[in-house]
Amino acid sequence: MFTIQSMTHATVYIAITVYVLLFLSLKRHPLYPFHAAGMFVQELFTSRKYLLHFLGMVVILFFNKIEITLENNMKSHSDFTPSVYGLEGEFVAVFQRLFENGFLTSVLSFFYVVVFPALMITSIAIYTYERNYKLFRAVCYAMMINYMIAIPFYLFFPVTEVHAFNPNVRFLMLDAFPTFETDYRPLSDLDNCFPSLHTSISVSMAVIALRSKNGFWKVFAPVSAGIIIFSIFYLGIHWLMDMSAGMVLGLLAGRFGIRLSEGRSLFAGSRVDGAIKKRRNADGKW
């Protein structure tokens, strides 16, 4: 059975997975993944616009860490998990029992821990290598939107992961990643559950990938999003409500990220959009 022994072990797997995904995406040349990494570093040092978008995304990820610290220091702490359980009942427990087997546990743990971050890293590398800066910016905007909307929910609408609340649900992640609670848990509190960022970010990456001209990535990103969504139930982590909210958030963040990257307003039919269309018609170049 495949196992992840530590976060260092997981990081190595992420690096290897990113390399393989880039190899499959970029004309299957063994050096192209390194070229993509080189172009990323070059853009950081030569393009102010590129750097600012990337830093904006990094800053919002840092705020997620601050949220965990703030939440742990809050005196009054509500728990909405019983209400969620009252609506859903044993859905996750039944789902898990229906599919549970050792091989699936290994594969889905790998997608949850390794492929999920690899999706984000590879997206940035592909769009940078292909000089598709609109999609690069779309990824940055989508990430920022996902976290900016999710963080207030984590602070003021805490929902505990299913396995920690329902004794009928096993935390299958521990079968494949025994040190998960000590190594991975500091990245996300046990009650940072609603909405599911694994769902929303995966969906955003899929929505953006569908705009890409990269044939492999247009297929792989949406398929991976589907597998990751399946994994959050199978592994006993998220509730159905978490996934549903994550789906909506991911779709909106992906769509809004694309609109912002194209210089359009968030809502169709706005005055800004109208002005842009007039300018396009006048210039005849857009």
TrEMBL record:
One of its GO terms (cellular component) is membrane. It comes from the Bacteria. The keyword Membrane applies. The keyword Membrane applies. InterPro entries: Aur1/Ipt1 (IPR026841), PAP2/HPO_sf (IPR036938). Keywords: Membrane, Transmembrane, Transmembrane helix. Pfam families: PAP2_3. Residues 93-253 form the Inositolphosphotransferase Aur1/Ipt1 domain. The chain crosses the membrane at residues 6-26, 50-66, 103-126, 138-157, 219-237. This is Inositol phosphorylceramide synthase. It comes from Paenibacillus flagellatus.
